[in-house]
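In the design runs reported in the main text, the only information available to the sequence generator was the tokenized backbone. The following block is the verbatim input for one such run; it is reproduced so that readers can re-run the procedure and compare outputs position by position.
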């Protein structure tokens, strides 16, 4: 029997997060403004005909688990591999002295600052509305967002830890790890199972996540594709 994590984006887009998605029976995407991710009912044989009319030219979309020939009308921009990791550790300790602020998806400044930080640090596909997909926590220097971590895909009980990034001027202080611990604690207390993605070439992050308590679930292809203009 297939596991939810084997096709997590589809199960998220067609299930608990269908309210954030658009598409048809066999293919869906996060709606405009959210992370540009595609999900297919059959990830190994994606039905691009069903999603083409929902995807605007000039936008790079991410899809996982597929390495077949490109369909007509689409082009391949990048192909890499990533680890899908699932939590296998203990409850992170409570960090009573750490007081990040929850980012408000209805606050334009929060959304714009999150988007700007993601564009600067490239933690993965991100959109100006992405922080509405779950809880996002941020660290601030005065009014400037300098680090964040949050939640993206969700197919109960699996919830993704995502958007983890720190401004280059503030790296090396452990902010991202502390933010992740708070997100993971929230998920575990809610009886959810944390998981995340990390590119196979990002050895430092992969090793950090292993030490934190994640384990590799699988290694999968990830492609960046777009409609031909």
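Verbatim output:
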């Amino acid at each position: 029997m297939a596991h939810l994590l084997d096709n997590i984006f589809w199960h998220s887009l067609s299930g608990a997060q269908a309210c954030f998605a658009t598409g048809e029976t066999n293919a869906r995407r996060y709606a405009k403004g959210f992370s540009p991710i595609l999900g297919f009912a059959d990830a190994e044989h994606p039905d691009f005909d069903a999603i083409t009319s929902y995807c605007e030219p000039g936008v790079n979309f991410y899809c996982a688990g597929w390495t077949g020939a490109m369909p007509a009308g689409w082009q391949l921009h990048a192909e890499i591999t990533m680890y899908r990791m699932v939590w296998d550790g203990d409850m992170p300790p409570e960090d009573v002295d750490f007081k990040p602020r929850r980012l408000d998806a209805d606050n334009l400044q929060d959304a714009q600052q999150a988007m700007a930080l993601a564009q600067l640090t490239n933690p993965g596909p991100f959109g100006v509305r992405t922080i509405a997909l779950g809880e996002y926590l941020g660290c601030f220097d005065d009014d400037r967002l300098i680090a964040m971590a949050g939640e993206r895909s969700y197919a109960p009980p699996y919830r993704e830890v995502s958007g983890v990034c720190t401004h280059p001027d503030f790296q090396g202080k452990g902010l991202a790890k502390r933010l992740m611990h708070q997100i993971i604690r929230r998920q575990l207390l809610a009886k959810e199972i944390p998981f995340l993605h990390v590119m196979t070439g990002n050895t430092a992050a992969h090793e950090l996540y292993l030490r934190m308590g994640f384990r590799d679930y699988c290694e999968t292809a990830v492609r960046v594709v777009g409609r031909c203009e």
